[in-house]
Amino acid sequence: MSQNGSRVEQTLELFRGIRPTVLPSLLLCDFANLQREVQRLEEAGVEALHLVVMDGHFVPNLTYVMPIVESLRKITTLKLDVHLMISSPKNYAPAFVQAGADMITFHIEAEPQPSRLLNEIRSMGAAAGLAINPSTPMENLLPFVKECDVVLVMSVQAGFGGQAFNPIALERLKELRNNYGSELLLEVDGGVNCQSTPAVTSHGADLLVVGSAIFREADYCQAMTRLRCSFKSFGTPTDA
Ligand code: DX5
């Protein structure tokens, strides 16, 4: 296996070994003190970070790009999970891998024929997957699931934190978990908090992306403890 291939496997084995786990979404954090924020999250036992890249075109919001990923790469060994909410992922995904991303998801709505880009991302050493918005039919995504390391099921329309959880994500998580092997990582993002975590984990989610339920709390350790307790008591996924 190539060096990049083993890097991908190492990332996937880590995520498979710690699931279900919470990934803080760096959208609502204090960017004026990013290093301190990362240190606080590491002290809270966080095992990976979810970075949200928005281009103001695919979604009506703008965030950050490669320089932030490069800066984070220099200050943490946490896995960097980069979610591209952009219109032209094939033009930019390689640059995010080079910046230090360990895993990249891009939207099926932005790249209806994703196979080549999925392979390109993996060949560069990052795990690769597809994201899907609640309003997009699963039929658009299903033909490509077998080519994914991870599927990111959005439980809000991508673009903003603090939105309400859309339960359509539960049906989608259950469908994917029931029809694909346990090697496929399932990620859920949007409105994930202590109220929705039992349902998302019992329906098969492995990676729980959380924004406001962490960053609107003063103490990240307490927030992470509450989140972990909210789903650990529900054990492994069932066919609920
Ligand atoms: C929204 C982002 C999410 C968001 C989650 O488009 O992809 O990661 O930051 O925030 P909450 O957890 O507040 O819904």
Protein topology:
Elements: H1 3-18, E1 21-26, H2 34-43, E2 48-54, H3 66-75, E3 79-85, H4 89-99, E4 103-107, H5 115-123, E5 127-132, E6 150-154, H6 168-179, E7 185-189, H7 197-202, E8 207-210, H8 212-215, H9 220-232
Bound molecules: D-xylitol-5-phosphate.
Residues 25, 27, 50, 52, 83, 156, 158-163, 189-192, 209-213 line the site of D-xylitol-5-phosphate (DX5).
Topology pattern, helix = H, strand = E: HEHEHEHEHEEHEHEHH
- According to CATH, the fold-level topology is TIM Barrel
Tally of separate helices: 9
Under the CATH scheme, the architecture is Alpha-Beta Barrel
Radius of gyration: 16 Å
* Cα-to-Cα separation, first versus last residue: 38 Å
- The helicity comes to 25-40%
Can you describe what's shown?
This protein has nine helices and eight strands. The termini are far apart. Strands 1-2-3-4-5-6-7-8 form an eight-stranded parallel beta barrel, surrounded by six helices. It is α/β, with parallel strands linked by helices and 240 residues long. Residues 235-240 have low confidence and may be disordered. Bound molecules: D-xylitol-5-phosphate. D-xylitol-5-phosphate (DX5) binds at residues 25, 27, 50, 52, 83, 156, 158-163, 189-192, 209-213. The site of D-xylitol-5-phosphate (DX5) has 21 residues, from strand 2, strand 8 and helix 8.
Observed structural traits:
240 residues, alpha/beta, TIM Barrel, eight-stranded parallel barrel, 38% helix, disordered C terminus, binds D-xylitol-5-phosphate
In short:
The chain has nine helices and eight strands. The protein is an alpha/beta fold.
